[in-house]
């Protein structure tokens, strides 16, 4: 019976979940803290923290921030083992992007982060955004940088400043992130689109 083997190079590079989990475990042991102590400080169950440490699940940004505070380190330290020296590219498998809960998002709105900057300063953020059903209220966002949207599925009415655009599969929209923006109506669900934000460099 033949078995499927992963390519040797890919097998040598830990996935983001494993890398983050290893760092959390090393930091915890270095400080001689138990899983129970860190979990309590971070407001998590011991079982969840154990899963994060073993790489069997990936926490959202809010959870990682709380773990970092419990360990007394900047959140960027948790990604220190997942750097460019270990691989030529970041490979995020289908459905494996870090799920992020962003301020203003609602139930049925899912954000999967598709790449992870290694340093404390973000250069860009690519999200796969899924909206499963309609809702009476929609989040409005403002942030630095330039944002690029690319529709994959569904039809959405998307407001940018005073203008509203009907976005269908294959459509794109580019705008300054400082302009208030967000969906205002879902014409056909589910909605799936890429959102890529390019942040300004320091000093610009």
Automatic annotation (TrEMBL):
Keyword DNA-binding attributed: yes
Region forming the signal peptide: none
PROSITE patterns: HTH_CROC1
Record-linked Gene3D superfamilies: Jelly Rolls (2.60.120.10), lambda repressor-like DNA-binding domains (1.10.260.40)
One cellular component (GO) term of this entry: cytosol
Domain HTH cro/C1-type: 24-78
Source organism superkingdom: Bacteria
Entry keywords, A to Z: DNA-binding
InterPro entries membership: Cro/C1-type_HTH, Cupin_2, Lambda_DNA-bd_dom_sf, RmlC-like_jellyroll, RmlC_Cupin_sf, TransReg_Diox_bact_type
Name of one Pfam family that matches: HTH_3
Segments traversing the membrane: none
GO function terms (MF aspect): DNA binding; DNA-binding transcription factor activity
Record-given protein name: Transcriptional regulator, XRE-family
